[in-house]
């Protein structure tokens, strides 16, 4: 809705005038900082983080590192090192399927005699 002015939920309904192919094309062309792209990248913490924001964070980090180096070189006491600009971190998802649970139970139930030989 924010980028195209189209409500995707209503556009998915029959009679909306959009084909599935058109909707997929719209979704694929969403900017990287959109809600949908953020969800596909790992979560809401990525919302708004496009290439320009990453470059701005790198620029701020470079300026603070240069300032730190200058102050360190020209002072008798060593100043505290600067913290980098926080960036979103991709969270790793745990395997939570029925098959993964069965594998975990089977591994836990193995006796030493059943261990594969190497």
Describe this structure in words.
The chain has 118 residues and is mostly helical. It has five helices and no strands. The radius of gyration is 25 Å and the shape is flat. The model has no long low-confidence stretch (mean pLDDT 83). Residues 73-98 are annotated as: Disordered. It comes from Lentzea flava. This is Tail assembly chaperone.
SS-based class: mainly alpha
For the secondary structure, the number of strands is: 0
* Uncertain runs: none
Distance separating the two termini: 57 Å
How many individual helices? Answer: 5
Give the ordered list of helices and strands. HHHHH
Bin the helical content. Answer: 40-55%
Helices, strands, pairings?
Elements: H1 8-11, H2 20-28, H3 35-41, H4 51-73, H5 98-109
Quick summary:
Residues 73-98 are annotated as: Disordered. With 118 residues, the chain is mainly α.
Task: Summarize this structure as a short list of keywords or feature phrases.
about 120 residues, mainly alpha, 5 helices, about 45% helix, flat
